[in-house]
Amino acid sequence: SDGLDIRIPGTENVDFSNVRQFTTVSSGRYRFSAQISAEDITTDQYPFFHIFDPVSPGRLSVESSPAKGTVARSWITLDVPVPLGTQALQIQIERRLSQKFDHKIRGTLHVYQVSLLPVR
Q1: Apex CA 4: angle with CA 103 and CA 82, to 5°?
Q2: What is the pLDDT of residue 44?
Q3: Is 5:73 a contact under the CB 8 Å cutoff?
Q4: Distance between CA atoms of 67 and 39, rounded to whole angstroms?
Q5: Starting at the edge strand that comes first in sequence, how are the strands of the sheet with 4-9 ordered?
Q6: pLDDT in tens, 14-43
Q7: CA 98 to chain centre
């Protein structure tokens, strides 16, 4: 009921995509929502939500805006147009490697809740 904390200690330049969930879908429009907050997330590459067709990522791949620095508890929303042929979605939190000299990411991302609902 308290959500998920991702705590990043600031010792490495990490890419990650280990927090994920799969869901089945039919073609149509969906709205992804996530309630998050962030504390002192550093570097130029920040965590974001990536939603894609795991069988054919070229068919569907959308990304949320990243959680930069400190973010008060708020909602991220993202429209997800699911094309014919897509039967499942992979939703994951990602962070790409930084190419900057000061690239060791630190901070905390808190995810309170997520949803993916059809838009009628």
Answers
A1: 85
A2: 85
A3: no
A4: 9
A5: 4-9, 106-118, 28-41, 69-82
A6: 888 889 999 999 999 999 999 999 999 988
A7: 17
Per-position b or e across 68-77, b if 16+ CB within 10 A of its CB: eeebeeeebe
What is the residue whose two structure tokens read 């200690």? 9
Kindly report, residue by residue over 66-112, the tens digit of the pLDDT: 999 999 999 999 999 999 999 999 999 999 888 887 788 889 999 99
In our burial notation (b when 16+ CB lie closer than 10 A, e otherwise), range 78-110 reads bebebeeebeebbbbbbbeebeeeeeebebebb
CA distance 28 to 97: 33
The distance in angstroms from the start CA to the end CA of the chain is 28
Nearest in space to 15 (alpha carbons), one of 115, 78, 92, 113 = 92
